[in-house]
Amino acid sequence: xxxxxxxxxxxxxxTHIEKVKPTKAFKRVFYYLTLGNVSxxxxxxxxxxxxxxxxxxxxxxxxxxxxxxxxxHDGIDFYLDKxxxxxxxxxxxxxxxxxxxxSMSTHYEKLVMVMEHDDTTFKYLLEIDINRTHKxxxxxxxxxxxxxxxxxxxxDKDRTAVESEMSDIFKDQEAYNKFKAxxxxxxxxxxxxxxxxxxKLMKVDDVITKTKTKVVVPKNKVQEESDIRYDQSFGQYxxxxxxxxxxxxxxxxxxxxxxxxxxxxxxxxxxxESDMGEELGFFDEVxxxxxxxxxxxxxxxxxxxxxxxxxxxxxxxxxxTGFESTEDSGSWFxxxxxSDSDWGGFDDFDSDW
Length: 353
Hints:
Residues 305-353 are annotated as: Disordered. The chain has 353 residues and is of the alpha+beta class. The protein has helices at 25-34, 49-62, 89-99, 102-106, 159-166, 173-201, 247-250, 256-262; strands spanning 2-11, 15-20, 40-45, 67-73, 76-80, 110-118, 122-131, 133-135, 141-149, 204-217, 266-274, 279-287.
């Protein structure tokens, strides 16, 4: 088990609605029929990459978070810490500022900054996504915060020793529920600290926070750190990427579902995922006596069925910034406005049927 929070940020910056070509086949039909008057409406933010990084830097420094893991610009890694450097935030920003030119700063599509931090309870990974182009209603900046329980850090211990340290949690259902509630409360306190720093130090229209309880269901038994699988494919930035030093903290989470199975624990309001971070769905209640949670049996993820995949009652959502949203609403199915198309001719339309 670990916790994952999302903090969605809407900065107070001038935005405008810009037409983009439909990307799905049925929308293309409407395009030809209406001469381009049907489009996705997306907001193109006017802020530049460097200006947003500067504001986020103020927030992170205020919180004492200065350990950067990765800085990526449209999929290009300008900084990736492979050696566990500490206090390297300024170094990464200086390197980025030197290597990026003005055109890249203004015309980026997505920036990703990955930070690490720890306190007395959690080892945190913070993935900050800055999207220059996004759909109406979505916020351009999202921070995903992962909290791993640092009390079960593997270090040089074997699996049996880690399981022994975790055993009190699983002695009965009451102990399990109490532990989960206590740690979730501490995690949400940290999210609130970040939120208040954002409101204080950045110009924002709105900040929304949510949290999830997540449990990993490994495909195969994880006996050692070397058995942990990672996803380092393009576009992957989260805790399952395999960043330096995180396997020690991720190891216990690979044992959690099996210990729940062994001790007949019922999980409530829990999001399940594979050992490579693939979402398996949300469960209001799940009986872990099933062999899906027995790591002596290879897990078939396709057989796991979810009761709900959207929201859970343990997701806490808050946007009490005191601001009113200034965001315009819109739909791609909109025939109003100017009848002239600014997309160019049909020759510009590449097919992806």
